[in-house]
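I am still getting used to backbone structure tokens and would like to learn alongside you. Label the sequence line and the structure token line clearly, so we can match residues to local backbone shapes. Go ahead whenever you are ready, and we will take it from there:
>
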Amino acid sequence: MKVLVTGVAGQLGHDVMNELAKRGIEGIGSDLADAYAGIADGSAVCGMPYESCDITDYAKVAALMENLKPDAVIHCAAWTAVDLAEDEDKRDKVFAINKNGTENIAKAAKETGAKMMYISTDYVFDGQGETPWDADCEDFAPLNVYGASKLEGEKVVRALLDRYFIVRIAWVFGKNGKNFIKTMLNVGKSHDKLKVVCDQVGTPTYTYDLARLLVDMIQTEKYGTYHATNEGGYISWYEFAKEIFRQASLAGTFGITQEKPEVEAVTTAEYGISKAARPFNSRLDKSKLIREGFEPLPDWKDALRRYLLEIGE
């Protein structure tokens, strides 16, 4: 099997390439840069080939797909800067990447006969209530530009393809990029007290664990829309931060102690900084994974423990 992975410079794409290599599956990485991670020969991770491609240019996408003729595409590339997406001068670019770029990938996949996996988000919903969102729920009402653009990506995939997977994820963290855990650890070194919102609820997703599931899934014909986060129940960002600092203090390598920093729970309204509206309810119902025979991701606390070991100083 040959798999093209877009967005390999990001957290998830990087780990998907590593997972493919681990299993001996042929992978080709792609992103916007001329070379991956500054490697002169253009290699991606694990010695696999890398191809530079601007997904907003259909001619380039079509040429790449026709040349490679992959059996599948795992489309991780996206605009993910949620607050920056709200800027008036960024909106067109956000949609060019998340909608038009996805449409270009889907068109090329249809032309070459490749199956496609599109990585989406809980932000396609309005984040209200407390009921977990079902994977096949179509009550779409995104609160911000990022969510609206990712929903448009979902729509073009469904409209153009029969052989597709849409996988919605939330609260992502991985080694190769910025995330909430790294932010908390950095801020925690220099602040005695932090405020973290307690009324936004969901479950974290470790890209290392998610990559395993995605590679499992792409090798099947069990098409459709799925939700995938780590197991372990639903928590608030405040509870996540508390556990990050608890485990970091035990690790003893991050400059965090049991006494510092103190974490104060505040409401979203009290926090009041975010430019983009955030969903209160990011609970994703993952029962469809079980019904279709896929192995759930491990508990998020265990994922956090392994992640801290991976990035430990």
Confidence is low (pLDDT under 50) at residues 38-43. Residues 2-170+204-230+283-298 form a domain with the Rossmann fold fold (CATH 3.40.50.720). The two ends are 37 Å apart (CA to CA). The longest strand covers residues 115-121.
